[in-house]
Amino acid sequence: MKLITLNTLAGKLRDPLSQFLLKNKDIDIFCFQEIFHNLDETTRTTDFIFEEGGNEKLFDEIQSILTNHIGYFCPIHGEFYGLATFVKKDIEVLETGEVCLHENKAYTAEDESDHGRKLQWLKIKDKREVLIMNMHGHWTGTGKGDTLIRIKQSERIVAFLKKNRAIPKILSGDFNLRPDTESVHMIENEMVNLIAKHHITSTRTSHYKKSERFADYIFLSDNVKEINFKVLPDEVSDHSPLFVEFE
Predict the structure, then answer these.
(1) Which of 6, 62, 213, 225 has its CA 20 to 30 A from that of 37?
(2) pLDDT at residue number 65
(3) Domains of the chain: which residue ranges?
(4) What gap in Å lies between CA 72 and CA 167, rounded to an integer?
């Protein structure tokens, strides 16, 4: 089974992203962050993110390309902005849900703080049940180091992992964290960090101009066999797509 995780930059790079999806239509599972879904015409994308040019209909455009997949949307801020996981139609999805990682009901786009954060999960069945988790971690605007909110976020992730200890698990997404943080180490105590295992030096593309070169991760539980892992070279966002093949 093959999985790609990608922070889409809210679909700002529309044509490269579309071509990337067309090229990778055989992938079984996509985990996307920064997804707009049916944003109404009176609301700006900048009400959710700081940059102009987000694609208000990104979920539907992805679905129109990935015609052999079913998309599952997880709203995070309002009903229109969040996470999305697309799963091939021939894969049975047994259950879906979410875990609250951070709550900020008072958030507005003008805040210095961050909106709420969630972990989206899907329980699928291949030869056996597998738990697929997709997340976009807490953002501060001042770096990717530990904060009290990020430590709490990892505590909630770990609690969910332990609750589902027996089932094979894949956790992926944009964590907004450096590899040397306690927030990452807490998850490494439960799962294998493929970024660390393969000595990856960056998960960013040339579209990202700041010095921090890490944000994105894939973690596997011990009962998932890694067949292949890559940081893909495609420049479709300021984040690199991560690819894993597993069984």
Answers:
(1) 213
(2) 98
(3) 2-246
(4) 21
CATH number of 2-246: 3.60.10.10
Which residue type sits at 235?
E
**Token pair 């329980």 in the structure block, residue:** 123
The alpha carbons of the chain give a radius of gyration, in whole angstroms, of 17
pLDDT tens figures, 229-246: 999 999 999 999 999 999
Instruction: Enter the tokens of residue 138.
Output: 């807490």
168, amino acid identity: P
User: What pLDDT, on the 0 to 100 scale, is given for residue 112?
Assistant: 57
Asked whether the predicted pLDDT for residue 4 surpasses 90, the reply is yes
pLDDT at 104: 83
Element (H, E) at 18: helix 14-23
How far is the C-alpha of 100 from the C-alpha of 179, rounded, in Å?
23
Q: Judge residue 211's burial from the number of C-beta atoms within 10 Å of its C-beta, 0-12 exposed, 13-18 middle, 19 or more buried.
A: exposed
**Cα first-last separation, the chain:** 6
Tell whether the model's pLDDT for residue 158 goes beyond 80.
yes
